[in-house]
């Protein structure tokens, strides 16, 4: 199946969310792209893109995963471009064993629910990324990268939520907070 209806996305702490949205607003104000804003997107990294006849069995799986996962600190250290017919500029986090394990752990549970999963999101092919602009021409890609370099990447980010998202509309169908790690002050 080529048209997937859903995604599981991970969202960031408020500071990172605001930083990325600010970049989206600047790109819009400079008439470079408003694809993320007009699409109704939230700053995110997709864990999996898929199709499923009924999402009812999926909700408890996502909740259980969220209840058993600590928030995850990440660092966005790269600006990337997917060289496909519709240009995508994105922020990429440093890929750590912890981030890969987070994805693999979710995928191992999720994979039992459907075979209709985009190959790009399988553990051996997954490229974690947060899109900054979609459907960009080459001049738009160049301007977007330039703006992102000027403003800077949201380096110290925290993955704090996981959500089921309807792809055609970018509407959040269900969202859960990850466990905040225990803070011990001595």
CATH class: Alpha Beta
Strand content: 25-35%
List unreliable stretches of 5+ residues: none
What is the tally of helical segments? 5
Total domain modules: 1
- Report the biggest beta sheet as strand number plus sense, adding barrel if it closes: 7 strands, antiparallel
Approximate helicity band: 25-40%
Say how many strands there are.
Answer: 7
Q: Averaged pLDDT, please?
A: 93
**Oligomer type:** single chain
Distance between the terminal alpha carbons, to the nearest Å?
Answer: 54 Å
Structural class per helix/strand content?
alpha+beta
Annotated CATH topology: Cyclic Phosphodiesterase, Chain: A
CATH fourth-tier homologous superfamily: Cyclic phosphodiesterase
Q: Shape, please?
A: globular
> How do the helices and strands follow one another from N- to C-terminus?
EHHEHEEHEHEE
- Quickly give the CATH architecture: Alpha-Beta Complex
Q: What is the radius of gyration computed over CA atoms, rounded to a whole number of angstroms?
A: 16 Å
How is this structure best described in words?
This protein has one domain (6-177): Cyclic Phosphodiesterase, Chain: A (Alpha-Beta Complex), CATH 3.90.1140.10. Helices cover 31% and strands 30% of the residues. It has helices at residues 14-29, 35-38, 58-67, 97-110, 138-151, and strands at 6-12, 45-50, 72-82, 87-93, 130-136, 156-166, 171-177. A hairpin with a 4-residue loop joins strand 3 (72-82) and strand 4 (87-93). The longest helix is centred in the N-terminal third of the chain and has 16 residues, at 14-29.
């Amino acid at each position: 199946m080529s048209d997937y209806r859903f995604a599981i996305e991970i969202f960031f702490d408020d500071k990172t969310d605001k930083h990325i949205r600010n970049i989206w607003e600047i790109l819009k104000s400079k008439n470079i792209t408003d694809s993320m804003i007009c699409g109704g997107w939230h700053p995110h990294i997709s864990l999996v893109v898929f199709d499923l006849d009924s999402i009812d069995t999926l909700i408890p799986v996502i909740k259980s995963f969220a209840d058993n996962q600590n928030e995850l600190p990440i660092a966005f250290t790269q600006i990337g471009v997917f060289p496909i017919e519709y240009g995508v500029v994105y922020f990429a986090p440093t890929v750590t064993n912890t981030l890969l394990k987070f994805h693999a752990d979710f995928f191992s549970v999720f994979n039992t629910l459907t075979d209709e999963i985009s190959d790009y999101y399988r553990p051996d092919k997954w490229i974690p990324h947060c899109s900054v602009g979609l459907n960009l021409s080459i001049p738009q890609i160049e301007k977007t990268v330039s703006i992102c370099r000027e403003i800077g990447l949201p380096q110290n980010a925290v993955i704090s939520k996981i959500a089921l998202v309807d792809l055609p509309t970018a509407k959040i169908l269900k969202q859960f907070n990850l466990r905040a790690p225990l803070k011990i002050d001595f």
